[in-house]
Amino acid sequence: MHRVFLAALLMATFATPASAQRTSPHDGIYEGTRLQDCQATGRSGQTRVTGQLRGNRFEIAGLPGDPPLEATVGPNGAVTLPSFGLFGAGTGQIFEGANNARRFTGSHPGRGRCQILYEMRRTSTRFRN
Length: 129
Description:
The chain has about 130 residues and is mainly beta. It has one helix at about 1-15, and strands at about 30-40, 45-55, 55-60, 70-75, 80, 90-95, 100-110, 115-125. It has an 8-stranded antiparallel barrel. It is elongated and about 40 Å long.
């Protein structure tokens, strides 16, 4: 009986495409906003942004015309954001909520009193191809 169950479990695991298998409890598609704020000049702008987290790699859509940002995620949900353009390397955190919910907040420091802020929620645990 146990062998039949184990065989069925293994077949179900291998029947799932590798691209659909989760490797971390934070994996999934994240959607939210990116706010660019510069208090020195008074300029501010907010855009919708999406990202995909798989394992320890968090790919966030870049600014228009730029490649995606490749952030890394630690086992405790700490996120390290790379520098880009005039903005330095940033940090963030993935928070766990009720019912397996996930939320990411992060920021990049800029020159003067400028910064980029992220506020994203996991909207799906399925990956896009």
